[in-house]
Prior knowledge:
Elements: H1 2-18, E1 21-30, E2 38-44, E3 51-58, E4 61-68, E5 70-77, E6 84-90, E7 94-101, H2 105-108, E8 120-122, E9 127-130, H3 142-147, E10 152-154, E11 161-163, E12 169-173, E13 176-177, H4 182-186, E14 192-198, E15 211-217, E16 224-235, E17 239-250, E18 254-268, E19 270-279, E20 282-308, E21 314-339, E22 342-370, E23 373-396, E24 401-427, E25 431-454, E26 457-460, E27 466-485, E28 489-506, E29 509-510, E30 514-530, E31 533-544, H5 548-551, E32 555-557, E33 562-565, E34 573-584, E35 587-597, E36 600-606, E37 614-620, E38 624-633, E39 635-637, E40 640-651, E41 653-657, E42 660-664, E43 668-678, E44 683-693, E45 700-701, E46 704-715, E47 720-728, E48 733-739, E49 742-749, E50 754-763, H6 778-782
Amino acid sequence: MKKRMALLVCLLSPLMYCNAQSRITGDVKSNNDSVVNYFNVALLNPNDSIVIKGGAFLDGHFELPDVRNGKYLLATSSLGYQTNYKVIELDNDHNLLDISILLNQLQLDEVKVRGRIPKVINKSDRYVVEVENTAISDAGNAVQALSRTPYVLVDPMTKKVSVAGRGSTLILINNRKITSDQELSILSSQNIKQIEVIENPSAKYDAEGQSVINIVTIKPKERGISASLRTLYTKGRHQSGQLNGDITYVTNKVVMFARYGYTNQKDEGFNSSHNRFQKEGYYFESMDREFENLFHTKGSDYAVGMNFMPASHHSIALKYEGYDNSTAGFTHKETDVLKNGTHLAPLTNLNDETQTYQRNGINFNYQFENKGYEISWISDYYKADHSRDNMLNEFYIEPEGGQKMKSNAHFLYDIFSSQLDVKIPLIKERIDMELGSRYSMVKNDNKNHFYHQESNQWIANNKFTSEVELDEQVTALYGILSYKLGKKIHMSAGGRYEKVKTKRSWNNEGQPELIMEDWFPSANISYVPSKNYSLRLSYSERIKRPSYRQLNNRVQYLNHYETRQGNPLLKPTEYKTLSLSTKLNKFNVSFTASYRQNPSDLMYINDPVQIEYTVCKYINMEDRCKYSMNLSRSFQYKFWSMRPFLSLSYMERILIEDGVKYTNNTPGVYFKWTNQFDLTKTTSLDADLLYSKATHSYKTFSDYYRFNLSLRQKMWQDKLTLQVAYQYIPTKWNQLLDYSYKLIDFTWDGDDRNMLTVSLRYNLSTTKKRFKSKSSNATELRRL
Length: 784
């Protein structure tokens, strides 16, 4: 009996060995050592060349799981390259390969790159705009790339980025919320692979914000060292410069990087305003005009980090980053005043201001991905220190008189947060479940001291002096269930729970703890019958919480007639949004309707007795709906590629003052037309037009036009790029508030109306890399 069992084991051993499973991973490069972005891998039987396993892959990396041990023929192919055949023999769990494929010289001699127009893909829950190797990749930095992207708006005044027709927007890089707008200015467009636009986000994303923009960067795959250096020179009314550099070192399991950026920027804009208040026989009118308004900023940002892959499917990232800048500003303004038919003495206002801002933080991120399972744990801590000093001199030339004032403010922030995201496939390729949690804690210490001068001595002014302490904790839980019905229908539904606990203290007087609990559901269904047609319907509930400064009820002195004050009673704005998106051949169209509860706006509140004295503060208005439509289309003719984009919106604003209801329902129009002309293989010309008629406020805005002309020349096998751009804005920016007994007409003549920009970018290698990491406390940082 023992001999029979031994014989049976010997006979079955080869079968048991053949059933052992292995995994093949590898990197594919061309013979010039650059990554092959799109390629096919096929595992063949060496005897009859029958395909056993294979697939199409991106970004130079492939993986074939669950392969039986044995001898195979591995075929690697890509358009423009010769097919590579490699004999392999599998006898262990993990096999790592490096494959090089040769360029097909006969095909390359006939290739002509013309009109690299970005492709827009309408996915089940978002628009995906392809950036890599397109016209957008040469735009400059991420802000310039976003300004050329359909569905994305960049505000001409604040430079804030948002989705057209959607208002407040969360900005992410590789699904990580940015900690400051500075990240966008230092991220090169050449390192961007895709820009994802999510008009109606699911419960996975923070409830803060009406929409989401996710920038997907090119992953570092090639081993070795790569570096890039970018310089920027701008000439408007003044000269500004920028220098950004980064270096990345990649090994089999480790990615290390360092980044540094320096900015020396001068901005000057001339403001003028016409204020008129008339009520019950009381008339007041003032004309403000700035003769000088110059701000000089010097700043640097830095980061160093490492991404370690201890084992297959596991990744650990650690990053330290910081930002440090200082701003010196000077403003000279004169005011002419008319009160009840009498001209008062003209008032001269001289204001010297200095600001410093420092922020430092550390970020930890663990990720696991395998066979549809995904785990991400993010934890980080940031400290921010902001100080501001003002010296204000207001005086009358005739009769002689006036006052001198000064203020110094100091703001300290401590921010900690941690979040966990898990994705579980319940039924392979049919049902997925996503679960997550998040906790954040913010502590803010805010001190502002104000003084006025009497008999050459500084006297504390308690009216404009305040001390504020804020402690806020946010706890969030979410869950999403996704279901695929065949290959054409995808459905998902979920909910997010958020609890906010806030403690405040004004001038050492504590207030009761405020607790807000909200539930934010979301649902999405998409139908894609073919690549030319798709339909997506989604619903979500979102929120926009006031910033910490908007809630701070301290009084800020602006000038003799005007102050600014926070509103601790300001309610958050809540949104209930329904979106319909469709693709019809090459047209992409979306419609959105959003019901807004407690919308807010910055308004002028007049003193009930002396109406010339006003307080600027945010207040809530009546609930109203907002409607928007976005339309985009791509065209290409030989060397000319273009993409027009149109956004229409309608939002009604209702304000009640003195028992009277006032309405502003001016529609909004946004039209963007981007054009690229590929003059030669290395030379291209961009010509862009922008027109907007804003409607995001109760105020009425003037027509805004902007023309951009940019010429790019690539040299040294695309390692060096020289770009010369000119921007022209023909009209001044104007806003008008006219209702009840008040009229405020504000005009801004900015430094960037005529601007010449010269930039030079150099890449040490042809590899385009970007470190991927996440941060969980960016929502709080962006509210500072």
